[in-house]
Amino acid sequence: MTEKVNLVINGINIETVAGRTILEVAKEHGIYIPTLCYLKDVNEIGACRMCVVEVKGHSHLFPACNTKVWQGMSVETDSEKVKLSRQFVLQLILAHHTVRCLSCCKSGDCDLQKLATEFELPTVNPYSSDDAKLPSKTDNPFLAYYPELCIGCQRCVSVCSRRVGNGVLNASKIGTRTFIDAPFGQDWKNTECELCGNCATVCPTGALVAKNMGKYQTGNVNRVLTTCPHCATGCQFYLMVKDNKIVDVQPAEGPSNRGLLCVKGRFGSFNFVNSPDRLKHPLIRNRETGEFREASWDEALDLIAMKFGEIKERYGADSLAGFACSRSPNEDCYMLQKMVRCAFGTNNVDNCARVCHSATVAGLAMTLGSGAMTNPIGDITNDVDLIMLVGSNPEEAHPVIGMQIRQAVARGTHLIVVDPRKIRLAKDADIHIRLKPGTNVAFANGMINIIINEGLADEKFIRERTEGFEELKEIVKDYTPEKVAEICNIDVDQLCEAARMYAKAKKAPIIYCLGVTEHSSGTEGVMSLSNLAMVVGKIGKSGCGVNPLRGQNNVQGACDMGALPGDFPGYQKVTNERVVEKFEKAWNVKLSRKPGLHATDVFPAAVRKEIRGLFIFGEDPVVSDPDQGHVIKALESLDFLVLCDLFMTKTAKYADVILPGTSYAEKEGTFSNTERRVQRVRKAVTVEGEMRLDTDIFTDIMNRMGYPQPYLRADEIMDEIASLTPSFGGISHKRLDAGESLQWPCPDKNHPGTPILHTEKFARGLGLFYPAPYRESMELPDDDYPFILMTGRVLYHYNAMAMTGRTPGLVEKSGSSFIEINTEDALRLGISDGDSVKLTSRRGSVVSKARVGDKVSVGETWMPFHFSDAFANVLTNAVLDKFARIPEYKVCAIKIEKAEE
Ligand SMILES: Nc1nc2c(c(=O)[nH]1)N[C@H]1C(S)=C(S)[C@@H](COP(=O)(O)OP(=O)(O)OC[C@H]3O[C@@H](n4cnc5c(=O)[nH]c(N)nc54)[C@H](O)[C@@H]3O)O[C@H]1N2
Ligand SMILES: Nc1nc2c(c(=O)[nH]1)N[C@H]1C(S)=C(S)[C@@H](COP(=O)(O)OP(=O)(O)OC[C@H]3O[C@@H](n4cnc5c(=O)[nH]c(N)nc54)[C@H](O)[C@@H]3O)O[C@H]1N2
Ligand code: SF4
Ligand code: SF4
Ligand code: SF4
Ligand SMILES: [Mo]
Questions:
Q1: Domain segments of the chain: what residues?
Q2: What pTM was computed for the model?
Q3: Which of 134, 148, 151 to mutate to test the pocket of ligand 4 (most atoms within 8 A of CB)?
Q4: Where is the 4Fe-4S ferredoxin-type domain (predicted)?
């Protein structure tokens, strides 16, 4: 029982509980106390003394933000003494503050300015001092620090260390004054600052600011609440719109980001919208000359309908295919798959999940019955005992989740990192299992072997909730710790210790990503992790589960919307006759019962002339699919390629028709983030040009190909989705606009959504153990190609860089490719850090720069796939996982030679 406390504030009797601060209690009762340095839970240092109050019987004043209430106290928040003290404090702060409100971008939004007005300060400040000025730091492209406006409140320092978990800001004293060592000066590129801007968000004055703020006056812009268009964390932010132009982004308190953003959301999510490179008109390519010319919408759409119609008639509907854009809203993806199914007449529809988390969708559906993240982000990063992070680099790929993991670790959560590379979080890990790439299945089987042998399995859970345990037990018998240590090239004791820690922890989520899925054994890797969680009963519970961090902002949604070859919306199977009949009735069309081709099978099929017409909606496979040479050959083999994108991408060059798409900032809709949370995307601007909504383009094509489809608004499309998809039955724009936050399954209008899956029973009834043996990666190093190459991403750029590449500051910070090589290997090859190196695989060669160190192990290398100076996918191997058809991006063999400069 928490102890009750009675107190009086400004004559009002209040009952509360012990342990709360005066400020909290006052606020709860509508009593205003001004603050300046205070930030709840983050900065409660009582430094600025603005929040002082009088307590009866005491001669000195108390800071309300960090004084706990006590029985019988009587507080005055507004007495003359308090007012005088606050005025004095403000004058002292302003004594060192260069009052230049007219030229300060924070004017109108500055806490200090507001308080100065509120406390009616005299025009002449008797404490004014002319102390030494420190230089401003303005070299950073996004952020600036003006010491003469700094009040030393330390909010920025606390946010960087306690919420962002980066700790690069420090307070320094010069004389009696506090300044911030802001990493925004000349050497900004070489600091550890991640440019997230969360420090600027909380600065109460104009001292530490995002430079974008200089482009507008607060109060003179429209704020449009929307969802970040990059990764699937699903951060909420406001687009600040001035005269139909987005000038800035400010974070919002969304359920997954809680006021934080990363550099891409904060600074990289709007320059591209108004980029002069945007496609503004339909373009038609002359196949003879390769030249594109502008065309009218009618001409382009007629041509598409005619060509696709001809192919369909001559070679059958299954010679057509369409890819959906996982960067675009649910409503767009739904209409794209409807176009492919109803107008093209085939199930050859897919999305980039194929090359990303298709192994998750297949693997978790087989074992648990639902291929989605089991628990919400907040639930697995707050108050858990241990996090097991497998093949996931959230500090770069899901930075706002990474920040929450850092916070958890700082609060004492244990961390096991399972990754071949020394990712930054590995430094803070209790155990870093630095396994050989491609050996996840052996690792998981080894963990299970130890857990069973040491009596750490949850027998009750296994008995009541699962099936197939005996088969699993049989197979993992062979995976003794010694054998696994050898396969994975790790330490036996470390493995045993990790198994014990994970099994014994009460709340312990597994969080994983592409280090698990992007292998020829990707689906088995995923199923091995769900085996592991089920053996210890850590699933269907708060703070536990098997949690794939989905990649693209709406890749969860693209899958949910049925942009999959075997599934209608909501994973209703195309092989289920009852389901097909339901959709035939609703869509009033005869539908194919034959599961379609996976995206990764479409390219080989194009080379074989089995696929002849392809519609690519917002993907850049020339950059992002494995074995670039093969992709280009496939695209060139097509009879007709249509592309709908925002930019003239590398893939667009091969298209017969290019249609200009609309970006997330120009349309209404919803994205579903990695935790199955459906969130609104709102129109902020109109871009000049002959733009049409993507959904209208699909409707145009459907109508021209003979399938009558009325033009629908995004909210109407969502209503159609809800009417046909049981797990979306209760989701509507209306509910979301009313402020509800819904995670599917949400079967009806009164359902609150489902944060945690599989609580009572698994979506498939019993959880299935899938016994997976370890198989080697398809292409291992040999004498000719002696190094393993892994590929992945860096913080500052996103996939093929269509969007982040159009923010100059991001390119300045990180603008070209590199390959991580171990120091020992580099020494042997005579390569130094920064040298140009020629990288060759059985598919091709590129020239990149060596980054020498110990981030990768001996014999292993790693490079990002974003950069056009050395596309990693020239090198990668297009072999596929047999269940999900996902490519082995994470392991191929290369040789390295020193290149001429
Ligand atoms: N900044 C940025 N963020 C992004 C993206 C981006 O392009 N840029 N893309 C988004 C997309 S589409 C996705 S899918 C996600 C991906 O997010 P992540 O999967 O977290 O990112 P990756 O860098 O591809 O790979 C993650 C880790 O897998 C490790 N790894 C490689 N091989 C193995 C292995 O065999 N076993 C294990 N255990 N680990 C291995 C690598 O060392 C790497 O640290 O990121 C999303 N977020
Ligand atoms: N070597 C290697 N390769 C990889 C990976 C790896 O780890 N290693 N990861 C793979 C993964 S996980 C993924 S997800 C893929 C990603 O591969 P892609 O999906 O090809 O990459 P993006 O850069 O996200 O491309 C999205 C395109 O959509 C366009 N676009 C965005 N929004 C809209 C819209 O609303 N409408 C229209 N019409 N267009 C829009 C953008 O302009 C951009 O050109 O890459 C894969 N490739
Ligand atoms: S931008 Fe982010 S990482 Fe850099 S100092 Fe500010 S809070 Fe810290
Ligand atoms: S820079 Fe801003 S947040 Fe940081 S100490 Fe100075 S005034 Fe406070
Ligand atoms: S973490 Fe992902 S969703 Fe959040 S701001 Fe960064 S890129 Fe956007
Ligand atoms: Mo992805």
A1: 4-95, 129-267, 295-356+554-711, 379-548, 787-898
A2: 0.96
A3: 151
A4: 141-160, 184-213
